[in-house]
Specification:
The chain is an alpha/beta fold. It has eight helices and ten strands. It starts with a strand and ends with a strand. Bound molecules: flavin mononucleotide (FMN).
């Protein structure tokens, strides 16, 4: 059993937060997809909100993890953070001592201002260092349609195509959390998390949001950092 900051990140936003927290706390940093560890004394878990839900691999991890004290940080692209922290405490890990919804750049918006000031996470760091006490996470608004084929909606909303620069090296496949792409061609399991786009050394994958998604992304932004300690 040990202390760690574990992250799941597709476009680097959650990883940047995890890097900062690991540095401040002096905890080792681990990628959820590479870490085989399941037992933790203090676990800080950082992950993105996907379609107002927990990503599947985060759910799988939370199902098998044995955690004495969990701090959960959900990064979101200023659209809607859903209710993922409440869901974690209710369905997976009751021992949550702190949590935050942290607004970041949206994976599908190129030009966007980056993070809130990381210094604002100080109450979280303080809470982790204090004696154990559970925090009650509130139930927030979640669009009732968010559970309706979220992966299919992502796939329909964002076109992902390989360009002539692809040399078939398949680093995209190695990076994909679902193994849902081969030589630059995504299959029906792809959720457009864009990890492959970041992983491609030749920048050979092109992302184009469709017009319904573009309209959705023009909605009023929610830039509020919510901290629970
Ligand atoms: C498939 C997918 C679904 C997303 N759904 C939401 C959402 O419902 N609400 C939101 O505010 N941001 C959403 N985002 C944006 C990410 O939550 C946000 O950009 C996050 O910081 C990305 O973290 P990462 O770079 O660590 O992967 C979504 C991004 C992806 C790729």
């Amino acid at each position: 059993m040990r202390d760690a900051v574990v992250y799941y990140s597709n476009t680097g936003q959650s990883k940047a937060v995890a890097d900062y927290l690991a540095d401040r706390l002096g905890y080792p940093l681990a990628d959820l997809q590479e870490s085989g560890e399941v037992q933790y004394e203090n676990l800080v878990l950082v992950f993105p909100v996907h379609c107002q839900n927990l990503p599947d691999c985060v759910k799988d991890f939370l199902k098998k993890a044995q955690v004495e004290r969990l701090t959960a940080i959900a990064t979101f692209g200023k659209m809607c953070c859903g209710n993922v922290l409440y869901e974690i405490q209710r369905h997976y890990q009751p021992n949550v001592i702190a949590g935050a919804y942290l607004p970041t750049k949206h994976s599908y918006i190129k030009a966007d201002d980056a993070f809130c000031d990381f210094d604002e996470l100080e109450p979280i760091i303080d809470k982790i260092r204090q004696p154990f006490s559970i925090v009650r996470l509130p139930k927030l608004y979640k669009n009732p349609f968010s559970n309706l084929y979220p992966k299919l909606r992502s796939r329909l909303g964002v076109a992902l195509r390989k360009t002539a620069d692809c040399n078939g090296c398949n680093l995209c496949r190695a990076a994909c959390p679902l193994g849902a792409i081969s030589s630059g061609v995504p299959d029906g399991r792809c959720i457009r998390c864009l990890k492959c786009v970041d992983a491609c050394p030749r920048k050979a994958l092109q992302v184009r949001p469709g017009w319904p998604l573009k309209l959705y992304l023009r909605k009023k932004k929610d830039s509020k950092l919510r901290i629970y300690v």
